[in-house]
Write a structure and sequence with these properties.
Elements (H helix, E strand, L loop, with lengths): L14 E6 L8 E6 L9 E10 L4 H4 L19 E7 L12 E4 L2 E4 L2 E7 L8 H9 L9 E5 L3 E3 L2 H5 L11 H4 L2 H13 L7 E5 L4 H12 L3 E6 L2 H11 L4 E5 L4 H12 L2 E6 L10 H7 L1 E9 L11 H6 L3 E4 L5 H13 L11 E6 L4 H10 L5 E5 L2
Parallel strand pairs: 10-11, 10-13, 11-12, 13-14, 14-15, 16-17
Antiparallel strand pairs: 1-2, 3-4, 3-8, 3-17, 4-5, 5-9, 6-7
Helix pairs in contact: 5-6, 5-11, 8-9
Length: 387
């Protein structure tokens, strides 16, 4: 694919359009800002942002009455994105100007792997990560241009991903590629507990955006999936779209024994239980039933956003030799692995594969895009900003 589809201006503009948050008591405003410049000696690249997905609770992240994540102000908000490299530092050896890349908002300190944060979203939990966001790489991708460290750029096979099917491509568009950012989150957790082809994974809750993405990823990894959720219609839709050969929906009833009987009655004991519950699911019965469904030596991945402690069946964990692993986001190897799955066609992003672009929006329509994302918080749903 030619870069002429989305050319890099020459010379660069002096300013660009971006959403700009100056307070959590008001919405980010569309503003003309000076073009961002890479910090000196930071091995950073300037990226022309082409598409970025809006997550269902994106609006509440920047609202003091909502989730109100911690971050420095002022801030250009935004999640990961698809973009084109506009400029590179002199020490970049393999990346090329004009190259299509996935831009990852998860930044890890080069001298401390435990110091991680999400540019444009959350300043992390360490003094080092908070300083990096404050002083070096602060802003996200809801803008025409953004600056990111070169290690956060993953090259994409543009010809394979965007060319028509009859020309040997997969026929995707940029909005569809932005869904990679959502798929990466559950892939980080499922890969961390070593989910293998042929194994059975219990995923809960599975009817929201990230839980639904986990179902798609686990199936692409070759597993059978027991998708747990309270939304019976969405579980039925997932089975209808993806088939029942390796996917079964299981309603969360609140009765642990009843749910456990259903889980074990389909394919026997499971190998992996993957929890990605939102804060509102605190105290849900699915955690206990999911853990109890595991075989001896089974694995648990906790990746949700709950803010309260969760009781676990301690004796069962001990006597079944279960492994419980917490996971926050993912590391760079996971990005490379998932992109390869998408490029190979192992993890497909077509509408018949359960992935649908609900709408695309310009920066001026951020509020409308957030509403669309909130209303379509389910498997495969994409509301994309196209700066």
């Amino acid at each position: 694919m030619s870069t002429a589809t989305h050319p890099i201006p020459s010379p660069f503009p002096t300013h660009h359009r971006a959403l700009h948050a100056t307070s959590t008591s008001s919405s980010p405003a569309l503003t003309n800002l000076p073009l961002p410049t890479p910090p000196p000696n930071s091995s950073s690249a300037l990226i022309r942002i082409l598409a970025t997905q809006l997550i269902s609770y994106g609006r509440s992240i920047y609202n003091s009455a909502g989730r109100a994540y911690p971050f420095p102000l002022p801030l250009v908000p935004g999640y990961s994105a698809i973009g084109r490299i506009a400029s590179l530092p002199p020490d970049a050896a393999s990346l090329k100007v004009g190259q299509l890349v996935h831009v990852d908002c998860v930044i890890t300190a080069r001298d401390g792997p435990g110091m991680r944060y999400m540019a444009g979203v959350h300043h992390g939990w360490t003094e080092g990560s908070q300083r990096l966001m404050r002083d070096v790489w602060r802003d996200g991708c809801l803008a025409e241009y953004a600056v990111f460290p070169v290690e956060n750029l993953m090259p994409l096979d543009e010809a394979r991903l965007l060319s028509p099917v009859d020309a040997g491509g997969l026929g995707y568009d940029l909005a569809r590629l932005s869904y990679i950012s959502t798929l990466l989150v559950p892939y980080g957790g499922l890969a961390a507990v070593g989910l293998h082809a042929g194994e059975t994974a219990v995923i809960a809750p599975a009817t929201g955006g990230f839980g639904g993405a986990a179902v798609l990823v686990a199936l692409a990894m070759g597993a059978r999936v027991l998708a747990m959720g309270r939304n019976g219609k969405e579980l039925e839709r997932m089975e209808r779209v993806l088939g029942r050969e390796r996917l079964r929906g299981v309603r969360i009833t609140g009765d642990v024994d009843s749910d456990l009987k259903v889980l074990k009655g389909i394919w026997g004991e499971a190998d992996v239980f993957f929890d990605i519950a939102p804060p509102a699911a605190a105290g849900s019965s699915h955690v206990k039933s999911g853990i109890l469904s595991l075989r001896h030596g089974g694995r648990v991945c906790l990746m949700g956003g709950k803010k309260v402690d969760e009781a676990i069946p301690y004796t069962v964990v001990v006597h079944k030799d279960l492994t419980i692993k917490g996971k926050w986001m993912y590391e760079r190897p996971a990005v490379e692995e998932l992109v390869k799955m998408v490029e190979a066609g192992t993890l497909r992003l077509g509408e018949k594969d359960g992935v649908k672009v609900e709408g695309t929006f310009g920066l001026e329509d951020w509020d409308r895009g957030c509403t669309m994302a909130e209303e379509h918080n389910c498997m495969g749903s994409i509301s994309a900003m196209m700066p």
